[in-house]
Design goal:
Blueprint lengths: L7 E7 L5 E9 L2 E12 L3 E9 L7 H7 L4 E10 L2 E11 L4 E8 L2 E10 L2 H8 L3 E3 L1 E10 L3 E14 L2 E14 L5 E13 L8 E10 L4 E11 L2 E10 L4 E9 L7
Antiparallel strand pairs: 1-2, 2-3, 3-4, 4-5, 5-6, 6-7, 7-8, 8-10, 9-11, 10-11, 11-12, 12-13, 13-14, 14-15, 15-16, 16-17
Amino acid sequence: AGQVPAMDLTLTGQGPLSDWRGTVTGTIDGRSCLDGTLRLARTEGLEVTADLGQAPDCLPDPVMARLLAGAPIALRANVTFENGRLTRIAEARLRSAAVRIGISGTLENRLGVRFSLETGELDRFGVLAGIDAGGSLQASGTVTGSLAEPVLEARLLSAGGHVGTTRWSDLATDVQLNPTADGGGWMAGTTGSAVPVGLPLGDRPMTWSSTVHFNRADDLYRLVDLRVTGPGGQSSLFGTVRADGAVALRGLIRSERLSLFR
């Protein structure tokens, strides 16, 4: 599940590069699946405008049909190419029934990219990943550093949602991903808070923080610290996880309400 079948695309149009207009059609096994308009305008960069609609029953895979069903897909972008390589995105916005994405910035030797993502239908992406999920999510952040060693900083917000039977409200978490000083791996850190929904102790907030190191040389993940503080107490986890599945973890749980587990 979750596979996009081969699609035959046909692009027709006319006009100068300063104002080229055309149409796009796509078929799968002879069935019309995609149609829309495309406009290209050469200014200081290249402006791209596309509005694409899809047939709701075209995709044979129900997972992909669920993900892509709904309103037409709209793309607005202004980009710059140098020597055949994308170097600058003045603005790029993609809107569909499931998600809104925005990107801008430079992609030269040093990165300077801002991005945003918003969806009110996590269930669509849950179907794609094969998990029961739902709710809303907003993400925004930056990508800096070099192409070989990018640095990611992002903030995630969710008014409410669930994965399986785990439900939350008022989620907010910050994520950082940096190359290590010696260039031999990566370090990821998160801090955040949320209100778990449906726990016996009531809808009280919980917080967490974690730091993970990844060493490229031996495919070793080192969990330096994971701390979770919630209504029932605090838990900590330390140790390592290897790519071959070997795990060596130590944990500590401090409970304020042991009666919760009786």
